[in-house]
């Protein structure tokens, strides 16, 4: 497929038709004002809460649109999909509503709540590989062998049109929007929303956001065609896609102002911020737009009103626990220190008392006498402290050094 000077594969009329098809199927999700983000960015920020959509993400929009338009013969043949979880749930839910058999390939290590929810909607789930791309290969092979219809997670005009219904809601809920920020994996959601925004509000800035460890779009846009990544490392499994889809790429190349990246630390901080300040549970992929905004705090480069799309909320509680700890550490709320102190009674008690006087709560303590750099008369004490933020953490570190402690900061 050529990507230059071509008509876009999806139009505003396609999106409007999909929206009519989805009437009574999807839930028009709320747009919630975020005072915390607005204060950080210096502009009004609204959160489009697709994490509150049926099946926990925007994916039902595209999956149902695609599957409802299958012929009766195709429906009888069944469908197959590949997904880390959100598309899997969207396909499984749509299949149960339409009376279609569904098989879904999911990566090994897929979040257990996503896997169980997909099975709960009635889909036959098989796990293999470690990426969506590997699962897509297996799904295509299954489709070729059985005649089942492959419901691609992002690379089909009906999928893009269905996701675009979210864009229609955004413009209705925030008609004066100036900036729209959307997380990007394969590109279906961003392509759908940008189709709507460019047709109805061409002045609006559209920004796509990828995890830095799985960012196929920046290189692809620079090359002028989809380029596959050789490796991906990110906790944001919902947007860990190694190659942009041809259909969404053609739209994004024409309509989106930029696709930018955020770090794992930024994703963790954003997830924690949304949990604490907005009382919203999102998965790492769903926090990408908020992470991009937090990275631009006080930079004055984002014109409001801003709509940030929270694309999904399906997160494994165990991962959530790890991310909360990581996010707190990234935000300066956890401080890990190692001290070399005399190996005599009272050294540990004195250290802990000094930490308490600095209003730093002790979370964990580790004792070691086998570190090679220690003398016979020394012991290393590792302490994890809970602090009130980066400024407090810096103040605690400085105060302990002033008291004569020899320490290393992790």
TrEMBL record:
Keywords per UniProt: Lyase, Pyridoxal phosphate
ACT domain ranges (all copies): 336-410
Gene Ontology terms describing biological process: isoleucine biosynthetic process; L-serine catabolic process; L-threonine catabolic process
UniProt EC number: 4.3.1.19
A GO molecular-function descriptor: L-serine ammonia-lyase activity
Cofactor: pyridoxal 5'-phosphate
Broad EC category: lyase
Family annotation (SUPFAM superfamilies): Tryptophan synthase beta subunit-like PLP-dependent enzymes
Family: Belongs to the serine/threonine dehydratase family.
Protein name as it appears in the record: threonine ammonia-lyase
